[in-house]
Amino acid sequence: MNERATFGAELRRLRKAAGLSLAELAVRTHYSKGYLSKVETGISAPNPALAALCETELGVAGRLTPLLPGEPVRRRTRPDVRPSGLPPTTTAFTGRATELRAIRTALEADGGVCVVSGMGGVGKTELAVRCAHRLESGFADGCLFIDLRGHESGTAVHDRVLRVLGVPAERIPADPADRAALYRSWLRGRSLLLVLDNAVSAAQVRPLLPAEPKCRVLITSRSRLSALDDAAHVSLDMLPLAAAVDLFTTVTGVPDGAAVTRVVRRCARLPLAIRIAAARLRAHPAWDVAELDRRLDDETARLAELDDGERTLTAAFRLSVQQLSEAESRLFGLLTVHPGTDLDIHSASALSALPLRETDHLLDRLHEAHLITQPEPDRYGFHDLLRAFATEFVLTDPEDEMKAFSRLTAFAVRSAAQAGRELTPHRFFPEIVFDPGTPEPVRLDDGEMAMSWFRAEWPGLVALCGTARERGEHERCWQLAFFLRDFFFVAKLWDPWLETHHWARASAEEIGDTWALATTTANLGVAHIDRGDLDEASACYGEALALFRRIGDGHGETTTLAHSGWAEHYRGNHDDALRDLRQAHTFFIRDGNRRNAAITGRGIALVLVATGQPAEAAALAIETLSVFDELGLDLDATMALNCVGWAWYHANRHDLAASAYRAAADRAEACGSQYETARAYTGLGNVAAAEGSAALAAELWDRADEIHPDLDRIMVGEARVRGA
């Protein structure tokens, strides 16, 4: 029995003893099942890398390596050069099992061209080299590793490859076309794996793709090279957190812990950043992980810290940016002006002052270069470290940056105002003046489109509101908060509602705008009362009333008085509540403000229920319902129906209560209010419980909890009596 058979037989015996199938061993070692089968049967020769991997996976150190053949068996007899120019693999390699399988599958398929792309520092070359080491033994003529250096042309590389393959220099033609022909001819009939590292474009690598079907090509690039239609494409993202932690602990020998997790998060799970951080820790014996974590905590200094003397993230990122056009580079820098985690094409267009089509093209080029991410089809974002790099090294024109931010905030206010008008068309909106060059708002045709826009944009708008405050754009700060208010009310996003209005109030004070200060303070009170903070709400209403009276704004004063009446009702001061609400109601009727009059009437109906007049309350709530329907205010109509159900429930008219709640649930679901939907199902559960149907009541309450858990017992009467 020869050495290869001995190795294969021993591998098969050890594999079966471990209870592993060939497929399972293939997954663990990243070698193909077919190749492992040939090794076990003696058809293919094993190699040291396979022996070491199998010993590790099977837990049999030293059992297979001694059985390796003394000399590699050549599948070819002609004296051609069999190159093996692969760089060594690193021992610290974690994750990427899915990507390794995808690359192997691509190279085993017909055509056999695979592009591995990703941002600088993500580990493309390391992955490609590791995969090539696994596959090299399957190629009779070996493997070639060619660093294209990000700029070398394919025709220039022909000369390098031909020399490595043993072609005498005098036989290599000077003419690029003749050289390419000789290259293709020399590869004919050969079985060769080409690894083309650091490609810059599809045009650069296309002349290097062999026509020989037994050759395979593995390409790495910072660009996606999507123009290579026949290639398989594997895009590398950041390491999963567990793999990132494993990489750091493997390199440093430091045990896992909270500080290690923080460090790899600060490195944004980018392999190069993690390796540099680990190298810095090793180079400073006096440091511990906590010290490294402290140094990386400062975002403004993080890039400078991620420099071990030989490797820097800044240098890695510069290589990517060098390939950009002037317009692409400018937009790349300006995108960092937006403080949110992502943005859409309209915001990018506002930043750049370029038309949408041109902006879309530039965004596509930046995405192709792995400089921005695309979390959703119409949204773009930044890797954290690339944002820091672009802010520090690409965004270099302060005046352009200042103008871009002003355009962006103006556009955001204009769009939010448009969305607010679609969401609550009869609410009072202040007249906002925009400069002639302000971009047009996003097109929103109805309330549903406005809600969708707000849901996608509100985190960025909140960040923009805070940044406007920091940059001294005080008018835009309070305006953004004002136009976000109705969305926050519908979505019940109380924390950002409070946060933006605190900023807005400070900005209004800064510029001495009393009306903006009064309105913002009143809306801040609405946020407090909506989540049940009655004391805070009343304090805000008191301040707003005094401000409105100071400037003689009767509408603002009356609206705040109505809000104060709601607060008194929830406190249990029903007589004071009726007084304030009825006074406001009279004013709104006299002023012709049917929307506000109906909203105030709904409040009066709730107070009447509390004072033991449910039938009168139901009649009044039904009157408001007709007004809301006439004005097309679906959410207000839903709230009126829930009010009707609440009144009939207290009048012991369970049939009418159930009918109103069912109608409210249908309309709440249609207009997207989970809060009012949950309130309606809670009311239906209360009706079922009152009629003795405990099982049905529990089912309805569970459904309410699934839709919107923990309805406030102060604010929602249905929640207060549930299960009582």
UniProtKB/TrEMBL annotation:
Q: At the top level of its lineage, which domain of life is listed? A: Bacteria
| Residues passing through the membrane, by range | none
Please report the stretch or stretches of sequence annotated as the HTH cro/C1-type domain: 11-64
Alphabetized, the UniProt keywords read: TPR repeat
Compositional bias ranges of the Basic and acidic residues kind = 72-81
Residue spans of the TPR repeats: 678-711
- Tell me which species this is from: Amycolatopsis oliviviridis
Q: Please tell me whether the keyword Ribonucleoprotein is annotated for this protein.
A: no
Record Pfam families: HTH_31 (PF13560), NB-ARC (PF00931), TPR_12 (PF13424), TPR_16 (PF13432)
Q: Give the protein's recorded name.
A: HTH cro/C1-type domain-containing protein
In its keyword annotation, does this UniProt entry include S-adenosyl-L-methionine? no
Q: From the UniProt entry, list the residue stretches annotated as the region Disordered.
A: 69-91
